[in-house]
Amino acid sequence: MTTDPGTASAQNVPEFGFASLTQLTATSDADYAVSAAEIKNTGASWVRLGVAWNYVEAFPGVYNWSSVDPAVLAARAKGTKILLILTGPAPYWAQGKGADPNSGSATPSDPATFGRFAAATATRYKDVVSTWEIWNEPNHPRFFTSPDVARYIKLLKAAYQAIHSVQPNAVVVTGGLTPTTDAPISEIDFVDQLYRKGGRQFFDGIGMHPYTFPYGINDDPRHVWNDLEAARAIMTKKGDAAKKIWITEWGIPTGSSPYASSETQQADRLVEALETAGATPYLAPLFIFTVRDLSANQADLESNFGVYRYDGTPKESAYALQRYATGSSPTSSSTSPTTSSTSPTTSPTSTTSSVPTSSSVPTTTSLPTTTSPPTTTSVPTQPNPSELFFRVGRVLGWW
Length: 399
Known about the structure:
Helix content is 29%, strand content 9%. It is of the alpha/beta class. The chain has one domain (16-396): TIM Barrel, CATH 3.20.20. The strands form 2 sheets. It has a 6-stranded parallel beta sheet. Strands 6-7 form a two-stranded parallel ribbon. Helix 2 (29-41) packs across helix 4 (69-77) and helix 5 (111-125) runs parallel beside helix 6 (149-166). The protein is globular, with a radius of gyration of 20 Å.
């Protein structure tokens, strides 16, 4: 196949997106541009980008947007819609007594501090973002220390009210819930408790991560995909049927891990999930995890969820997604791509203009300037933002 994975979407084909890891791997504006082009070339119209609280607000009231601005600008330059996820951990100063600077799951002692962070983020990106996700997998201790629904609702309330005060028509989605049955709170119980403990008025949609790997959605012996219907039943029972479920992560890894699929299987299973989700009225766009492999290590399960290989060459799934997005047939993968649409080290040649800087973005989509942090105070080293989602332990039963 010699064409770029497409840039046009067929009418009546449901939208989909990517849960991107660009912010952890990009080192230059060119990297952001390449990732944005890779997303667009598959036919995807959404991207989920992380705003890591511990990095952005390492000092109270001092905001460092350097990990977010380039990704947002690159996505907008391609016309891609953005879901911003406000992720933990809480910065050291917000944790309160017993603070752990190395924690990857710490929550704030005072939810109001998170609300102020949410307000600052919404204020900065209100002209280019209208969909928000609050925290990642709050039912799992990897991301939310000692998961507790009542405590999460306090965070959700603070963020919801802050975002809606800035952007009244915003869509605020709960943190995507993991299908971990041996975690303190299963995803279905978490949804039920959201309603029973008074959280209903503080979200506009529910996020879920119904991972089925190494299986597809229809041959998974655990029937994880059915959790979507179970969650929907709770929402309907509570009179909340107007709200949608957002699959903010779902993917199939390739590579040599025992839990990996072949590249052909990945392509077929991704399209199968998109077709099923697209035919389900209560589901919002599905976000595929993720765009590009994180390393060339085929044995590392976590590194091989991409639809592009680490070197930037597309897997079969990149073209399968293109065919899905453009309404072409067959929808299943049958042709192995032989060329890469973008270089992993240079700006994509298919781009008609370079990624704009803050000063050159049109007024309606520009980002406000902010005062730089004091030069005498450096940002301390923090754990990686929790946009790097840890899956392997769940599959292997480590927790």
